[in-house]
Amino acid sequence: MGLFGPSISDHYDGAIRAMADEVMNSIAKERILYDRERLTTHLVHKYAFSEIKPTGLDRATPNDNGTEILIRIGVEKHTDVPKLLGLEGQSVSSAPYDLGYNDGYIEYRLTHFNAEQAKEEVKRISNRIIEQEIHPRNEAVRLGNERFMRELNATLDEKTRQLKAGEERRSALEEQLKDLK
User: Fold this and answer.
1) Buried b (16+ CB within 10 A) or exposed e, 84-112
2) What is the domain range of residue 128?
């Protein structure tokens, strides 16, 4: 468990267990044996995270009395962003370090800044958020997705071996029993 809730690694531990359980117990053998590519795509979409993709600084807006600047960095929308930032159910005002996510935007409330250098400060902070908040999480997602794919392929290979061995046993029994008629 991470500092602000479940970590990305915790997510993948659970996702790998759930995927393995689904493959071993719930998925029709025809999908495993004959439609592996589509099955793999489905399972990755269901269990793996997508990376946060920043689209750039959207805007910086000072509050009414000029003591704060709300910086909004656009990101491609997907449901994983709040989870990846550890901000599920939090707004920008209650989030750690005044960081938040709001419908396609990462928001940061800048409270200590030099008014004469506000533009440079906003650019610096925007770059720092991308470098310190987004890139490390994307690296964890990339590593988690690689681990997930290895486990998915190993699980599918094992289930395929089991299914083929079962089919061979059934065929052998059918061959032995056909002469009983």
Assistant:
1) bbbbeebebeebeebbbbeeebbbbbbee
2) 54-141
